[in-house]
């Protein structure tokens, strides 16, 4: 197992309140597998991603759980030990990563620096490897001679994806890597990601609110809501055999790429305030299936091989889904 997250809890402190952004998240990721982490804005996806390589803001901290990565619990490592893992073993690409490119240095120089900071390599070799990475992400190697301002936003984001891949990390965490770009460019870059999957050995955790992207890119999907995972399984099962009402809600609103900028989710209501003490199922106030039982926390049930759901009524949801799928007579 490449990554095994067990009961991760990450909280923020703000204005004398404790915000339980991640409150008991568990999932596993095998080498070579891609996982899509999906859910509405504010459900804790980014906090989960930042917890894994511990780049949380100063008011946030991991308060419980384990982050087992290749035999080490990252939650317990010192900063110095973690620094050896960041980039070399776990690279991160965020929405705003392209803004981190230094405007006064040529792209090629920044690629060389990215290599030389971590490994012993001469300039020529680093430039050769950069040219190869550029071909993988769909950039001309002549772009290595450009300054960042000579590149479009989409090209800059491709540069940071190439940088993330530079050291062949076993894990790349991509947090909404294309959301800041226009839709046509997003589509191009995501297609490139699909192509990359076959070329590199890294596993990818793709954080996104756009579940249609996950359908194209990830073998596994974890659906997050209000700081918890509601359902996880193979992407195929999540789309075809969902057992959690929240997953059904996300899928019913299955957006096309063109609609991705608009409000994606048609589930009435909004997620609960994570600064409150939440009792029972966190989705109960928005759930058409909820009963008194949902005042209690649901157990996690295995509804198929490695297909887990946190709901008291998975069978009712399945029945509803099957009826809804029948052709109308
Ligand atoms: P989005 O898609 O909007 O980025 P998300 O699912 O990634 O959302 P997070 O950004 O992880 O969710 O936020 C989870 C919760 O933690 C939210 O209630 C958010 O307001 C809160 N939060 C995030 N960052 C901080 C912070 N630095 N200080 C206090 N609260 C925070």
Features of the shown structure:
329 residues, alpha/beta, Rossmann fold, eight-stranded mixed beta sheet, four-stranded antiparallel beta sheet, 10 helices, 12 strands, 24% strand, globular, binds adenosine-5'-triphosphate
Write the SSE topology.
Layout: E1 3-14, E2 17-29, E3 34-38, H1 45-52, E4 60-69, E5 72-73, H2 79-85, E6 90-94, H3 107-118, H4 123-136, H5 153-165, E7 171-175, H6 183-197, E8 203-208, H7 211-217, E9 220-225, E10 228-234, H8 235-240, H9 245-252, E11 301-304, E12 307-309, H10 314-325
Parallel strand pairs: 3-8, 3-9, 6-7, 7-8
Antiparallel strand pairs: 1-2, 1-4, 4-5, 9-10, 10-12, 11-12
Helix pairs in contact: 3-4, 4-5
The chain binds adenosine-5'-triphosphate.
> Count the strands?
12
By CATH, the superfamily of one domain comes out as P-loop containing nucleotide triphosphate hydrolases
H-E order: EEEHEEHEHHHEHEHEEHHEEH
**CATH secondary-structure class of one domain:** Alpha Beta
Q: Under CATH, the topology of one domain is which?
A: Rossmann fold
What is the oligomeric state here?
Answer: single chain
How many DSSP H or I helices?
Answer: 10
Sheet with the most strands: spatial strand order: 6-7-8-3-9-10-12-11
Given helix and strand content, the structural type is: alpha/beta
Radius of gyration: 21 Å
First-residue to last-residue Cα separation: 47 Å
Q: Assess the beta-strand content as a share of residues.
A: 15-25%
From the coordinates shown, what is the CATH architecture of one domain? 3-Layer(aba) Sandwich
- Described by the principal axes of the CA atoms, the overall outline is globular
Q: Any ligands, ions or cofactors bound here, and which? A: adenosine-5'-triphosphate
Largest sheet: 8 strands, mixed
Regions with little confidence, pLDDT below 50 for 5+ residues: 253-265
Task: State the share of residues found in helices, binned by percent.
Answer: 25-40%
């Amino acid at each position: 197992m490449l990554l095994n997250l067990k009961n991760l809890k990450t909280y923020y402190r703000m204005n004398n309140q404790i915000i339980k952004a991640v409150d008991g998240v568990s999932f596993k990721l095998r080498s070579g597998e891609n996982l899509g982490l999906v859910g509405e804005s504010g459900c804790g996806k980014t906090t989960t991603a930042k917890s894994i390589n511990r780049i949380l803001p100063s008011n946030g901290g991991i308060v419980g759980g384990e982050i087992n990565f290749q035999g080490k619990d990252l939650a317990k490592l010192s900063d110095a030990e973690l620094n050896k893992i960041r980039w070399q073993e776990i690279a991160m690409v965020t929405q705003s990563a392209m803004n981190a490119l230094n405007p006064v240095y040529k792209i090629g120089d920044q690629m060389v620096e990215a290599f030389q900071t971590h490994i012993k390599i001469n300039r020529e070799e680093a430039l050769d490897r950069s040219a190869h990475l550029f071909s993988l992400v769909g950039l001309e190697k002549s772009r290595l001679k450009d300054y960042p301002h000579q590149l479009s936003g989409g090209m800059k984001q491709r540069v940071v994806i190439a940088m993330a891949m530079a050291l062949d990390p076993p894990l790349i965490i991509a947090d909404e890597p294309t959301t800041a770009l226009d839709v046509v460019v997003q589509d191009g870059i995501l297609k490139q990601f699909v192509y990359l999957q076959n070329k590199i050995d890294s596993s990818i955790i793709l954080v996104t609110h756009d579940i249609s992207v996950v359908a194209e890119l990830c073998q596994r999907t974890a659906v997050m809501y209000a700081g918890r995972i509601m359902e996880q399984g193979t992407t195929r099962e999540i789309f075809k055999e969902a057992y959690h009402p929240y997953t059904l809600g996300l899928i019913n609103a299955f957006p096309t790429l063109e609609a991705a900028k608009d409000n994606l989710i048609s589930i009435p209501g909004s997620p609960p305030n994570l600064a409150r003490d939440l009792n029972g199922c966190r989705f109960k106030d928005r759930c058409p299936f909820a009963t008194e039982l949902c005042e209690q926390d649901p157990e996690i049930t295995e509804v198929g091989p490695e297909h887990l759901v946190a709901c008291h009524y998975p069978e009712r949801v399945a029945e509803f889904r099957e009826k809804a799928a029948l052709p109308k007579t």
